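--- STAGE predict ---
source: upstream dedup step, 1 unique chain passed
mode: sequence only
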Amino acid sequence: MHQFKRHRTLWGSIITLGFILLLLSLFLILRESQQPAPAAVSKGSRLLEDTASWEAAVDQAKARELALADPRVDSILSGKDFGFLNALPLTSIESQRLFDGMCADGACARVSFYNYSGGGTVESIVNLDTGQVVESTVDRDARPGASPQIVPRALAIAAADPRVTEVLGDVRKAEPIMGPMSAWLMDDDCREDWCVDLTFAAPDGSGRTFHIFVNMERDEVARVFYSRSRAMRDVALPPAQDRTWDDGCHEEYGWNVCWEMTAHDGVEFRDATYNGDFIFSDIKIGQVEVFYPSWPGGYRDEVGYAASVEPADGTHVTDLGDGFEVRQLFTEFLTWPNCVCCYRYEQILRFYADGTLGLHFISHGPGCDDPMIYRTFWRIDLDLDGLKNEELLIWEDGQWLEAETEMSFPLFENISPDGEVLITGAGEYRYRWLPLKTDPFGDDDGQMFLLQWNENEGESEIVAGPPDSFWPPGQWLTDEPLTDENIVVWYVPILHGKKGDPWWCAPEPAPDFSPCDAELRIEPIVEVEPTPMAESELTGTVETPTTGTVSVTPTRTVEPTASPTATPLAEITAGPTSTPRPVAGDTPEEVIGNGGCDNCHLIGDMGEAGKVGPDLSSIGVLAAQRVPGLSSIEYLRASIVDPEAYIAPDCPNAPCLAGIMPGDYARRLTAGQIDTLVNFLLEQRSPTDSVSEAGTDQVPSDGIPLVVVVLIISLGVVLAVALAIFYLKLPGNSDESQES
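--- STAGE serialize ---
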């Protein structure tokens, strides 16, 4: 009997240990499931609950009903899967100029639907006072901004995707970082389809942004992935920001100009005169396009009262002493600057006493990843001496030539010795256009488009579309004549954001903020006198004396050479400028940092995982395996000086693509620096954790993996049950044994 007691004591202890193990496992899994997500830095539940002021300005239900009652709209949408986007009041410019008095006194609204079945928008102009449908149009290429009306659909699609559920649980209960934004991917159906990006804070507390690209037309999640994290800045938060702006007019320093906030074309400046003479009809920003090679894709940011980046803090008019400026801030309503994805822009127009115009755009950043490229689309309808009879001169091959047909050209490649890229004129007026160089690394870039004015080419609402065919104004670029026509100039500065120290554009931010900006000056030519020359000497040359006086020789008697070949905006990439800046530094760390290599790659302790290019922490081992017959040294050297020669098989977010890595390192690096890089990369032989592709990216966890917890529970349960059964069968544990 003593032996039986000893067995009972031993097995009882084992059973107790099994149950303790079971309880511990239950505790761990409960703790894992109850880990609180970090507090969101932005809109939270307002994604669904917030009612914007512009919605209240128009009876949304009534406008929708009027539009759907129109036979033209009904014939297009009947039986189709479509969604109501919004009803927006027209601007005064649209009401006064475009609809023949049928929309006076703010009675009209633009009602928009998206045709999920066939793609594109269906829009109606409705008069809410009379109930009349003034106009209905279809734009199959349009890709609208993400309105609050589409949020339930986007969230429902995201909630059905297991990749989203695994990371966020019920996405409809998660706190977003930004509002939904119209977005695109170059290597996916989201290149053509309308897609929306939903952004959330990574639940692991890393500060990264978890992106969900929702294809609104195919009812599916196109991609999930993470973009970078950033530490909190040691700066005070800004005061509470209000969604405010001020429409108005201002008369000073000879100028008289009015402006009005638009739904998503920024502030529209209109009907400007200088000393009583008409200068321009309107100037506005159609969109701010953000491109990230690491995705590869980005956003079609719109600025305006119904846009993804909204106006804030009022419209400010400031006296400059020799002129005045009108400035408007646009921002995502976050805790900027302590946010991960920061979209914060400023649109500024300056009017000087000498008749000069200044267009200035600032991106305060930072964006969602490194590197980043910002394109700002300014539309400028400069009407000198009436609407038509305008003249355009461009600088090419050392002379001024007349632009005869529509065209585009790089902003900083064809500049006169005095910095001019364009001369416009009509009657007695001449203006010279001077883009200012603002990039601290010398990577100034941009594009200019010269188009004939046509209806529905941006004079009203400007909508975005597929990035390869519908980048305003690329989709309108044809061979229409420009001579003696009403000309519209599109100015598209391209800002190459960089991973600075520690944040944004400049190499050494001082103080802690270093915004990217672009500026264009449009200056009057104070004297215009034909230079007397022999007929044989009429070459179209423009002399630009240092006094600022420009003498323009007659060009109508000159047979201009062919216009420069148009360069589609879709071909603009993150490529090098014509005069690449040398990379400073002698050590591997200096060359990698100054050359931007760590913006795209993880290289041992440098850089960041999950970025644009492949992880190079083991490239010293892998290099010899990449190309048969090529040694490690040969492969690494070729990859630096000619990155298009061999494309690596796998990048973090997708298969590696051509055209992403800069191709100018052969000119920017010395032979010694290249040797230093090759030798350093040969030493990278430590294996690292594999980085999953964007579509299956998993959140790293600081706790015990769920599969381990489940295994512990299973083993604990099996052990406890088995031991309990065995214990009951032991001699002395039956009723008879206990009686004996």
